[in-house]
């Protein structure tokens, strides 16, 4: 099982802040593809190249980054500053 977290606008738009999933996905790309099957909004947000991802609170940029049972994966939009 992995824990998936959604932050900021993603949490608001999806109406979901966390999921616990039993999944066979072993990479971020596979996890995103699985979550995208939930509908158009999920697909749109998770397949946006600007989406930031963290595994166990460490930012990852490679969609082939491996995930393992017990990991925490977080998705969040790009941050803007002023």
Automatic annotation (TrEMBL):
Keyword terms: Nucleotide-binding
SUPFAM superfamilies cross-referenced by the UniProt entry: MoaD/ThiS
InterPro entries cross-referenced by the UniProt entry: Beta-grasp_dom_sf (IPR012675), MOCS2A (IPR044672), Mopterin_synth/thiamin_S_b (IPR016155), ThiS/MoaD-like (IPR003749)
What family does this belong to? Belongs to the MoaD family.
Q: Which PANTHER family match?
A: MOLYBDOPTERIN SYNTHASE SULFUR CARRIER SUBUNIT (PTHR33359)
Q: What is this protein called?
A: Molybdopterin synthase sulfur carrier subunit
The organism named in the record is: Kistimonas scapharcae
- Encoded by which gene? moaD
């Amino acid at each position: 099982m992995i824990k998936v977290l959604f932050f900021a606008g993603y949490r608001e738009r999806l109406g979901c802040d966390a999921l616990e999933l039993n999944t066979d996905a072993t990479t971020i790309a596979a996890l995103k593809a699985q979550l995208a099957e939930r509908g158009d909004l999920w697909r749109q947000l998770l397949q946006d190249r600007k989406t930031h991802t963290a595994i166990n609170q460490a930012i990852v940029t490679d969609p082939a980054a491996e995930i393992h049972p017990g990991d925490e994966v977080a998705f969040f939009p790009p941050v803007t500053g002023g």
